[in-house]
Design goal:
This protein has 106 residues and is α+β, with helices and mostly antiparallel strands. It has 4 helices and 5 strands.
Length: 106
């Protein structure tokens, strides 16, 4: 796990002033393959899937951006966050896209 990713996660926890439930964090290559992760998955280095339960999704996303995350995957029940070099975002299907765009995320 890269220190930059852990520092961003801690900054997010402090900004939210609440616990973060990590649904998926660091994965070894074998586990990543077993769960159907992409071969170049950032979960093998610097990514987290944070559960939305207990958080205001748009507030969580804004705080994550301010905490240093640059990669955002918007799911129905989670927010994928990573500290890749260049900003990127995506949606996990049309239902996720509809949910997040209704919150002002596009």
């Amino acid at each position: 796990m890269w220190p930059q990713a852990l520092d961003a996660l801690e900054a997010l926890r402090i900004a939210m002033n609440a616990p973060l439930r990590i649904d998926s964090g660091h994965r070894c290559a074998l586990h990543n393959a077993r769960v159907g992760g992409a071969p170049l998955s950032l979960h093998k280095r610097l990514a987290f899937d944070v559960a939305l339960a207990g958080h205001v999704p748009a507030q969580l996303a804004a705080a994550a951006r301010a905490s240093g995350f640059k990669g955002f995957g918007f799911g129905q029940t989670f927010l994928h966050l990573d500290t890749r070099a260049r900003p990127a975002h995506w949606f996990y299907g049309e239902r996720s896209k509809a949910k997040w765009t209704s919150l002002g995320i596009s």
